[in-house]
Design goal:
This protein is of the alpha/beta class. The chain is about 25% helix and about 30% strand. The strands form 2 sheets. Strands 8-7-6-10-9-11 form a 6-stranded parallel β-sheet. A 5-stranded mixed β-sheet has the order 1-3-4-5-2. Bound molecules: S-adenosyl-L-homocysteine (SAH).
Length: about 230
């Protein structure tokens, strides 16, 4: 009997689980056998230890032995409103911020955006990257990646921070874990003046990420990094 460190994603953690698709292919590649134990997670915070009962080329049956809630999440829900970026930069941000504990990505279209919109294929790819990064960092929550909306469509938030060069307020000086939190980071060309005004009206406080100008793909990682290195 082997106990696999590898974690598999399931839709619902019921007592008995029938799987097909890529997770089964993965189990075949790892040469799992009936009796072996694996780790399952459902993407919403639940994990389980489960035993493989049956595995063939296409399907697997598992019995859940022990179910528990994973405590690796940040103290409250966190959403990153992330401006669209060129090439693989969005994928890099989604991967790193998932490792750093973000709960959700809301892609945003901005005035000086590097790209005007995002195709469905790219969105699917970003969601897969979030799932892989979540597995890799042992989280049990897979952050949602929400399709792009304009800044106008963002909600008014209870607690929000927008990274904006030339400001002096700091994230850790203001962040309160009692409330859910939103972050916003801009495209390579930055947010326009009217966009910052709009974000302020929606209760986003402009904050600094230091005196240097960071690239658009570095900024969200620096922001989440400050939180992660504070130890939560
Ligand atoms: N061209 C812009 C810089 C944009 S940097 C200018 O010269 O002002 C891209 C994004 O990263 C910004 O919109 C902001 O959200 C973030 N960012 C980069 N460096 C930052 C800093 N030092 N402080 C706060 N936010 C920063």
């Amino acid at each position: 009997m082997k106990v696999h460190e590898k974690r598999f994603k399931v839709e619902v953690l019921s007592d008995t689980i029938e799987l097909d698709g890529p997770e089964v292919q993965h189990m075949r590649v790892l040469r799992l056998k009936p009796g072996d134990e694996v780790h399952l997670f459902d993407g919403s915070g639940w994990e389980a230890k489960a035993r493989v009962e049956h595995l063939d080329n296409f399907t697997a049956t598992l019995t859940v032995m022990e179910k528990f809630q994973n405590d690796l999440e940040l103290p409250t829900s966190t959403t990153l409103a992330l401006a669209l970026l060129k090439g693989d930069k969005l994928a890099d941000v989604v991967r790193a911020c998932t490792e750093l504990g973000i709960s959700r990505f809301q892609l945003i279209k901005t005035q000086y955006a590097d790209v005007p919109d995002l195709g469905d294929n790219k969105l699917v790819r970003l969601r897969r990257i979030a799932e892989e990064a979540s597995k890799q960092s042992r989280r049990a929550v897979v952050p949602e990646v929400l399709s792009p909306i304009s800044i106008k469509q963002l909600p008014s938030v209870q607690q929000g921070f927008v990274a904006h060069p030339g400001t002096t307020d700091t994230l850790l000086g203001h962040l309160k874990w009692e409330h859910e939190v939103w972050f916003a980071t801009g495209p390579e060309g930055g947010f326009s003046g009217p966009e910052i005004e709009l974000l302020k009206q929606k209760n986003f406080l402009p904050i600094t990420l230091g005196k240097r100008i960071l690239r658009a793909e570095t900024a969200p990682v620096a922001l989440l990094g400050a939180i992660a290195s504070s130890g939560v």
